Amino acid sequence: MSNFWQRTLFGIVFISILIGAILYDAITFRVLFLLVAVSALDEFYKIVKSDVNQPNQAAGRIVGIITYILLSAIAFGTLPYKYITLIAVAFLTIPILELYRNKQQPVINIALTFYGIFYTVLPFALLNFISTSELHYNPEIILGYFILQWSSDTFAYLVGMTMGKRRLFERISPKKSWEGFIGGGILTIVAGYITSIYFHTLSSSEWMIIAVIIVITGTLGDLVESLLKRTYQIKDSGNIIPGHGGILDRFDSLLFAIPFIWLYLNFFH
């Protein structure tokens, strides 16, 4: 099988699983993104781990799972908000455990362990809040988000390939262009309006604002992951999806976009 057809086949399977889990019910949605969050966290720790820097992968994974499950339960009303304090307690175990590891760079290890959870698990956990409306699961907004994210990536690539001349951030990502960013952004805003015709959870203006948020913060998220890979001189974050790289490669834009979308919906919707 050629690389093109392998990439296409696994891309279709991946998108089908994602959409199916989102649409089926709240449980499949929550479980899927818990697995995605843990996989992304593992990829991050494998990337930054070296002979000197050694994040506490086991503790980070456990605290990450606790963080996701507690925030998910709070989002769906299973637990009251006061249980969010347990997350702070869980995080405090990481520096305590580092006392007993006897590693060369304990402070850097603690920082990397913390950052991995904030960078990967927290955005996926916030998806649970975005997916709820008055404590009821509403897959429409999640599906709409992914449609706009995929539109942004696709339009930016196509416009950049055909018209791109001025580099957006050449030091980090030589292929990205201002033309792709601006042209892709305009087309994604149009896609936001079209999305509002079919998904009525938000108004047309709100979908278009979310499109703007996705274009800006999603691009920054992509650049940050490129910075991470360039720093550690790797091509892909992993190989969990043949032909598509790792989980971080597929969700790098989401990791920055979701917190800002949650802030917008929480304060202005």
Shape: globular
Q: Structural class from helices and strands?
A: mainly alpha
Mean of residue pLDDT?
89
Structural domains: how many: 2
The strand line-up of the biggest sheet is 1-2
Low-confidence stretches: none
Largest sheet, in brief, is:
2 strands, antiparallel
Which features does this protein show?
mainly alpha; 2 domains; two-stranded antiparallel ribbon
Could you explain how this protein is built, in words?
Helix content is 74%, strand content 4%. It is globular. Helix 1 (3-24) crosses helix 2 (26-48) and helix 5 crosses helix 9 (247-268). It has 9 helices and 4 strands, in the order H-H-H-H-H-E-E-H-E-E-H-H-H. It folds into 2 domains: 1-137; 139-269, no CATH class. The protein has helices at 3-24, 26-48, 57-75, 85-98, 106-130, 139-163, 178-198, 204-231, 247-268, and strands at 132-133, 136-137, 167-169, 173-177. With 269 residues, it is mainly α.
Brief sketch in words of this structure:
The chain is mainly alpha-helical and 269 residues long. It contains nine helices and four strands. The protein folds into two domains: 1-137; 139-269, no CATH class.
List the helices and strands and how they pair.
Elements (H helix, E strand, L loop, with lengths): L2 H22 L1 H23 L8 H19 L9 H14 L7 H25 L1 E2 L2 E2 L1 H25 L3 E3 L3 E5 H21 L5 H28 L15 H22 L1
